[in-house]
Model the fold of this input.
Amino acid sequence: MQKAVEFKNVTKAYGEVTAVRDINFSIDPGKLVTLLGPSGCGKTTTLRLIAGLEMVTDGNIFIGGKEVTHISASDRDVSMVFQSYALFPHMTVIQNVSYGLTMSHMTKTEVAEKAQQGLDLVGLADFGGRLPSELSGGQQQRVAVARALVLEPEVLLFDEPLSNLDAKLRRRVREEIRELQQKLSLTTVYVTHDQEEALAVSDLIIVMNDAIISQEGTPRQLYEEPENIFVSDFIGDANLIKAEILNIVRDKAEVNIGGIHLKLKHNGIPKGEVNVAVRPQAINLNSSTNKNNIPATILKASYLGDHLEYTLSSTIGELFVIDNQMEKLFKSGTQVYLTFRNHGLSLVPES
Done:
């Protein structure tokens, strides 16, 4: 199958600073792929390289099977939705959506019809005569999406599209973007530093750190099978615990974690000392002991409405725990005993 976007050994340097270093990835048509990572990791530079707003220092970029490495932004079949929305304040909503179409060879009637269809798609059919200042932040974001959609791009690009919205609105707008992307089967590349947002909207996530790709995979693969310490901590938080692989049988390893023996997927890691990434939700707390648990002391306890958060001290180190058992709240200083769930633990190598 022909790839919608493909990077082959792409590097982008600004003088002595390398923003993107020798990265390779491909995106299938109709998929939403998120570039995820902390500030300065290279994700926005990668998006701008797809758009043609930056040119590569080395390597090759293909869109729809066609090499576009040295083709300008105006000649690439892509549209971009910016973090700032970039709407013209003196133009009405319909004029903003029509702007890109007016550069084409369409008649005024065709432009107006297509722009109205774009507003219909994003649920703003009756807002065409308003100015951007008369809209909420979420509505302005939808206008920016409509303006990009009407150009019918081969690839739609989003650069931190929800960062200016409050938490509840972010959730609603990201759901709208995802529904629209799936409905239209749009190839979409989405940049965010918010791991929850990435997990919610993506078919595939490419995690970047220090100008390279740390890991790529489905949201579930990245959360449940991180390949390195950075990904285990960046995607969903993780307690990193030292343990020992005692034995390996087929794809399972017998692991000793502070005296508790578990069987986990070994991911090619040999016998000996190992890191175990333990999700905060994978730790059970009990007030009474049994023969297969680890004693701990509650250092901090926080009530967050739908869950409780604890910081513990234990023989395997300080741990962060998320507990959904709202009927029991352990206070600071309480002695507890912890065990592990079957789900939410993974072995990760040092690097």
About this structure: The radius of gyration is 24 Å. The longest strand covers residues 17-27. The chain has a mean pLDDT of 91.
